[in-house]
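User: quick one, sequence for these tokens?
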């Protein structure tokens, strides 16, 4: 009898896992389709539409409000919008303030390696762009967002003479592109404006820099302590900002000054 139980136990464990996994997939899909049919925004697990945490969204709201304290009708820019989670957060902040403003969302809507991993590469760019538009529309912020389907390089070149008050960078996290984006977009940030970016999981002095350098052109790396982080972002923050940035919940931020920049001070 003991032997039979011994044999059945792992089988039961595996079957249970499969059952939970399948049930989760079924519920995720039901939730998604209900939102589409009922015309509600969808920021659930499907397609990793819920990619931003509640705490990250709080930080974004706070940074946008900070810029709004300085002026009305702010011009905001987001590099990397995916299904619209952060874009809707920024646009809702603009809308609620009643002070006017606009958010330009720049994305190729192809996804980073991380997005492709979440979706297992089984989702087309048009499906994500459609979900983005759905979320924007049914969150009631359509009048505050202008989506622009192009690469960050193309937009930076096209708008090199424009100035923005708030810039959020959450596009390609690999070193070369992240560094390029930081530099290009700092050039079109207004003095007094705030620039911030996602996925600074650790500063360079908290990680093994050699491992990070070897993997800087990958979306993320896992070290021997089991920590997964975006090596490209960590190294670009070091090389461009000399680690002189504010950081909360993996969002780094700076404020442009006449002479350069200062780390955004969260306690102010
Ligand atoms: C991590 S997702 C953005 C998530 C989004 N900010 C949110 O919180 O919901 C990264 C996005 O950047 C876009 N992207 C990657 N490289 C890009 C590039 N060079 N130019 C424009 N968009 C890019 C991808 O298509 C993807 O949608």
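Assistant:
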């Amino acid at each position: 009898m003991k032997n039979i139980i011994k044999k059945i136990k792992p089988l039961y464990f595996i079957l249970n896992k499969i059952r939970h996994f399948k049930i989760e997939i079924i519920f995720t899909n039901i939730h998604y389709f209900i939102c589409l049919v009922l015309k509600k925004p969808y920021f659930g697990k499907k397609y990793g539409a819920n990619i931003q945490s509640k705490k990250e969204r709080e930080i974004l709201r706070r940074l946008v409000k900070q810029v709004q304290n300085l002026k009305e009708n702010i011009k905001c820019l987001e590099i990397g919008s995916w299904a619209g989670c952060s874009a809707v957060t920024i646009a809702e902040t603009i809308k609620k303030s009643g002070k006017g403003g606009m958010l330009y969302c720049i994305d190729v809507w192809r996804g980073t390696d991380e997005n492709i991993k979440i979706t297992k590469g089984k989702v087309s760019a048009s499906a994500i762009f459609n979900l983005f538009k759905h979320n924007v529309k049914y969150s009631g912020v359509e009048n505050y967002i202008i989506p622009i389907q192009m690469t960050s390089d193309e937009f930076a070149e096209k708008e090199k003479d424009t100035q923005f008050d708030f810039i959020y960078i959450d596009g390609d996290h690999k070193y070369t592109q992240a560094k390029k984006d930081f530099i290009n977009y700092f050039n079109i940030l207004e003095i007094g404006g705030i620039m911030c970016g996602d996925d600074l999981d650790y500063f360079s002095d908290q990680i093994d820099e050699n491992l990070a350098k070897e993997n800087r052109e990958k979306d993320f790396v896992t070290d021997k302590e089991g920590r997964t982080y975006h090596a490209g972002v960590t190294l670009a923050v070091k090389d461009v900002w000399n680690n002189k940035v504010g950081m909360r919940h993996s969002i780094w931020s700076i404020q442009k000054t006449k002479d350069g920049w200062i780390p955004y001070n969260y306690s102010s």
